[in-house]
Amino acid sequence: MDIHHDWASIRAHFRRCWKINFHVTIASVNAEHHPTVTPIGSLFLNEDGTGFYFEKFPNLLPKHALVNPNVCILAVNSSRWFWLVSLFKGRFTTFPAIKLYGVLGQKRIASTDEKNRLLNRMRMTRGLKGHDYLWKDMDYVRELKFIRAEKINLGSMTAHL
Questions:
Q1: pLDDT tens for residues 81-92?
Q2: For residue 45, which of 159, 145, 150 has the smallest C-alpha distance?
Q3: Nearest CA to 102 among 146, 64, 67, 69?
Q4: 7-157, what's its fold?
Q5: Chain centroid offset of residue 49 CA
Q6: Is the CB of residue 95 less than 8 Å from the CB of residue 151?
Q7: How much is the pLDDT for 149?
Q8: Rounded to the nearest 10 degrees, how much is the dihedral formed by the CA atoms of 42, 46, 50, 54?
Q9: CA 54 vs CA 83, 109, 123: distances in Å
Q10: Per-residue pLDDT band at 135 (split at 50, 70, 90)
Q11: DSSP codes, the chain
């Protein structure tokens, strides 16, 4: 999968997955070379092969970025309907999962546009009790630059893709 040529479809896949799962998983490695994964519900992919996530709750990712800024982000389409239809047909219409490899950048104050993207994504939860706890005061983002994308292959079910 070519990260530049396929970027629009990669972004579409990540949007679909977020609507189903409400998060992606970011894998990182600590100073002792032990891997860990962190669920992130605020990842956004930009049009230019970069992205960002809001860094309010992650504790380990910022520490790992100091030692090893390389990350792998996994977005899985876990829609039951998607899987049932694919299993019935014997093939997937789109990839069931995509991994993005990238590098964590600097933590910085979120721009107004970035905050608006978050508020727009979370607009359906505005009236709920946990909305302010989770999404209020999201002031800092961590930049990401992606260097490679990898589609998840599942034999003949994805061979035509």
A1: 999 999 999 999
A2: 145
A3: 146
A4: Pnp Oxidase; Chain A (2.30.110)
A5: 13
A6: yes
A7: 97
A8: -20
A9: 30, 10, 16
A10: confident
A11: --TTTTHHHHHHHHHHHHHHHS-EEEEEE-TTS-EEEEEES-EEE-TTSEEEEE-SS-SHHHHHHHH--EEEEEEE---HHHHHHHHHHTS-SS-SEEEEEEEEEEEEEPPHHHHHHHHHHTGGGTTSHHHHHHHTT--EEEEEEEEEEEEPP-GGGTTT-
pTM: 0.90
Amino acid, single-letter form, for residue 128? L
Q: Enumerate the domain spans of the chain.
A: 7-157
Strands 97-109 and 140-151: what pairing? antiparallel
Least confident of 19-28, 132-141, 143-152: 132-141
Q: Which has more pLDDT, 123 or 39? A: 39
The answer to whether 17 touches 43, Cβ cutoff 8 Å, is: no
